[in-house]
Amino acid sequence: MKLDHLVHFTRTSPATTSRYWNDAGFHAIIGGSHKNWGTQNALMYGPDYYIEWLTVEDEGVAARSNHPLIEHLRYDQQGFGTICLRSENLELLAKQLESRGFQTIGPTDAERRTETGELIRWKMLFIDQTISVALPLPFFIEWEEADEARLAGLKSKGAIQELNEQLQLDALVFSVNNLEQSEDQWKKLLGGSLALDNCRLVFQEGTGKERLSKVRFASAEQELVFEQGVYQMPRFQ
User: Fold this and answer.
1) 167 by DSSP, 3-state: which?
2) For the CA atoms of 103, 51, 145, 139, what is the dihedral angle to 10 degrees?
3) Which of 215, 230, 199 is nearest to 48 (CA)?
């Protein structure tokens, strides 16, 4: 299974967020709005995943959305939230997860309208889990387009440039209070391994709120801290 994207909750507009990362030598873009959720995002793509900086655009809509991810955003407000894994068949995955003892929510339909008016659609599947200081389990996505067509489209629009394709991930590092318990739970969820096809999942002992704590890229040469999220990044300028 592959990482599709990681979600970083922010209090910053997509325009300001994308400007920060572009000024730092990377290529980030304004994503668009989720009108049914009251949120908007900025995005930065790697070769086969992306980072989503998600913020509230309309608090009233967000409060009424009854959506697991938006409820998580309103709880955390800021900092790394959760990760999303890609699937080609969420209906089948839901049955597999239920057989492993996890209660699921979905699949549900979702969409985002870009600044240019394009409507992008996908489906989402969540684990039924109370939002708290405990580490949130990943959620899952199935895109309407096949991966090859979707990535080709992103390249043709300039969302993925040559620089983005150099952003190879090494590891996502999670801070947890009970190392063995967390690793066992995630291995059970993922079918026995913490190694995704495009990055490693690493758990480290910590205290307090359990969340993703660091995003580590291959060939990291600098550490950037943005809205309480730590990124160990290569240097392109």
Assistant:
1) coil
2) 0
3) 199
pLDDT tens-place string over residues 48-86: 999 999 999 999 999 999 999 999 999 999 999 999 999
Q: In the 8-state DSSP scheme, what is residue 195? A: B
Q: What is the pLDDT of residues 200-211, one digit of tens each?
A: 999 999 989 999
> How many residues are given for the chain?
237
Encode burial over 117-134: b for 16+ CB neighbours within 10 A, e otherwise: eeebebbbbbbebebeee
Report strand pairing: 79-86 vs 2-9.
Answer: antiparallel
Q: Which contiguous run of DSSP H or E holds residue 39? A: strand 39-45
Residue 164 C-alpha from the chain's centroid: 16
Mean pLDDT across 97-103: 97
